[in-house]
Amino acid sequence: MTSLLNPKSLPFLDNPGPIPFAHRGGAGVFPENTLPAFQNAVDMGYKYIETDVHSSKDGIVFAFHDDSLDRVTGHIGKISDLTSKEISKIEISGFAKIPTLLELLEAFPEVKINIDPKADSVVPPLINLLKHTNSVSRVCIGSFSDKRIKQIRKELGSRLCVSAGPKAVMKFWAGKFCFSSSKTYYHCLQVPQRSGPVKIVTPAFIEKAHSRGLQVHVWTVDDHKEITELLDLGVDGLMTDEPSIL
């Protein structure tokens, strides 16, 4: 079957081999989503990093995973309830400050960034930031919210790389996906190996994705054996917390 989409036509997916992503900068080595973590990955040769974003109370986009601050900072409360000035005084694990997405874009201009918008409130400022920094072609948007993905894709257009949301992935996996290249808003399937007892990444899943011009990226893989098995299956990208393993 002829591929209906060409992932290589998107700058983000144009890579000579399977894409290695430093998940949250390499959270197994440095505190997650910190500039030192991302710098370490880049120093190791990574051209792709993955991060999550939330918005401050005053609309600044920060690279941060959780809704609340307590797990990695020791502070109580939601990040979205604080101003950017207040957030700038907080450190992750007493190690480094919470970076803004703008800082990441400027610090690593040659690096491509996979972005997971974690809340509805971050969508408008994220769209504005990517537009104003001319960064649309160097990012990919993936999220557990199909609504957020579609909203961002609608605003930023066809130059934006987009991963399928969870509903679209499960329809695809279950064979209930009606493919039309004119209606498909995504270019890759970013998935875990399993969802509970269900194995998602199978030879059939990968073959079907490739036949439709879609890449398959798997998260989060930190085991040598699993990495080898997935590469042998033909996956197009792997996200890891252990940058030295890829």
UniProtKB/TrEMBL annotation:
GO terms assigned for molecular function: phosphoric diester hydrolase activity
UniProt domain GP-PDE: residue ranges: 18-246
Pfam families attached to this UniProt entry: GDPD
GO terms under biological process: lipid metabolic process
Protein name stated in the entry: GP-PDE domain-containing protein
InterPro entries from the UniProt entry: GP_PDE_dom, PLC-like_Pdiesterase_TIM-brl
PROSITE patterns to which the protein is assigned, alphabetical: GP_PDE (PS51704)
Entry-linked Gene3D superfamilies: Phosphatidylinositol (PI) phosphodiesterase
Source lineage: unclassified sequences, metagenomes, ecological metagenomes
Transmembrane spans: none
